[in-house]
Amino acid sequence: MGLPPFILLQNNTMKKFFVLSLLFCVQFSYAQLFSGDKIINNANFDKQRFSWGYFLGFNTYDFKFDYNDEPQPSGRDLIISKSIGFNVGLLGNLRLNNNLDLRLAPGVNFNTRNFRSPSTREFDEITSTYIHIPLLLKFSADRKNNFKPFIIGGLSTSINLSSGEDNPEEKFSLKTINYNYEIGLGVDLYLYYFKFSPSIRGVFTINDEKNKLSGAELRQVDALRSRAIFINFTFQ
To answer: Outer membrane protein beta-barrel domain: from which residue to which, for each copy (predicted)?
Structure first.
């Protein structure tokens, strides 16, 4: 059985919004790098010791399964169907020098993952709400007109509010607190009134998230870890 129609509709709407946002960023970047326009917006923005902002964005979560050596009569791999979720949060930025910043970006992430074992046709739905707290280092190139690319990486803690760890009746439960490493890239676009920064980041869980798994195939899972892609649009 496929995914419910409302999930497919939600995913299509988010994909269209993402494509339009990406086209805007590409067009703006091209204009700043190759046009003759030399008007500098917010020339002193990066001289601030502290700056603040917020972000909105999308995510997609996946599971990486590590299997044990027990025999599996119905096959090995679990089948994952990913969907597009939503991110929202705040940003605190500390300027260390012209090309290096330390930032704290706590937020809330919403996502739904669907999976099924090879022996069944029905997807089981895992709806997750994470409080995500990353501490990141941002390495920036020198600013060119109103354009400045960067790479970013660091460590984070995720609190899974929908883990089910404390519910003994749950057949599939995860650990509530997890630890991740993150790496990504983006670009700062200096607009007339604010700085707009689209970015993409990979998030990889370090610890084993498995708390309790039931079912013939799930018992073959030795460990599982989340993998995610975040696409965020930051406003400062």
So the answer is: 44-209
Spatial distance between the Cα atoms of 236 and 173, rounded to a whole number of angstroms: 38
Residue 202 has pLDDT above 90, yes or no: yes
Fill in the amino acid letter for 139. F
Alpha helices in 57-114 (DSSP H): none
DSSP annotation string for 199-236: EEEEEEE-S--EEEE-STTGGGEEEEEEEEEEEEEEE-
Please report how many Cα atoms fall inside a 13 Å half-sphere around the Cα of residue 65, on the Cβ side. 16
- What pLDDT was estimated at residue 182? 98
Confidence at 1, pLDDT banded by 50, 70, 90:
very low
**Ramachandran quadrant class, 29 (left: phi over 0; alpha: psi -120 to 50; beta: rest):** alpha
Q: Sign of the C-alpha dihedral, residues 133, 135, 139, 143?
A: positive
pTM of the shown model: 0.79
Contact (Cβ atoms closer than 8 angstroms) between residue 119 and residue 79 = no
Q: What's the one-letter identity of residue 207?
A: N
Spatial separation of the C-alpha atoms in residues 84 and 233, rounded to whole Å: 15
CATH at 108: 2.40.160.20
Range of the domain at 225: 5-235
Q: Examine the pLDDT at 124 and tell me if it is beyond 60.
A: yes
Domain count, the chain: 1
Residue 33 predicted with pLDDT over 60: no
Residue 82 or 100, more confident: 100
